[in-house]
């Protein structure tokens, strides 16, 4: 068996996928493997190899790869096709800058309408984040936490844009953890954000959110600057 197929088999398994679930299952398995590093940057993902591995046609594989490309997890490279994107790149800082703009507005719209159940749900996600160590699951819970605080925003297109950015940001989690020498991320900012939202202190919550996101951007900027100096 070629080494490439051995890698894909070891990472993704050999379980056959029901045709009606193929696209979503393949997308989720690849996504998790990319985020937690089992499929490293530069790994080529060929449609026919994946189709054979999962026992499906190339169509659901093609659609899954398109979704992952849209999320910034894959890049299309000439003569190689879809490959796993670098863990971090110049666009990462832009992602955080865009998140500040979008999420601050969503928070302002949503906080006045949040009720006790919404706050409890957000705190529940923090609790799960404090106990979780799997990178893919950390990313999912982080996205759900933030979206729980923005959920009551009236602008649905704004929420869709934010969710797209949060999906892309999940690939940065491994970078943050490794760059800071941590096994997990601190939840202090998240606690402060929920406390402000619970007290209906809109501008305080926005301030906490902006500092939270700007800290992430600064970490990435420092790393990129150090790489360019090498």
Automatic annotation (TrEMBL):
It comes from the Bacteria. Pfam families: FCD, GntR. InterPro entries: GntR_C, TF_FadR/GntR_C, Tscrpt_reg_HTH_GntR, WH-like_DNA-bd_sf, WH_DNA-bd_sf. SUPFAM superfamilies: GntR ligand-binding domain-like (SSF48008), Winged helix' DNA-binding domain (SSF46785). The keyword Iron does not apply. CDD domains: WHTH_GntR (cd07377). Residues 20-87 form the HTH gntR-type domain. GO terms for molecular function: DNA binding; DNA-binding transcription factor activity. Keywords: DNA-binding, Transcription, Transcription regulation. This is Putative HTH-type transcriptional regulator YdhC. It comes from Pseudomonas reidholzensis.
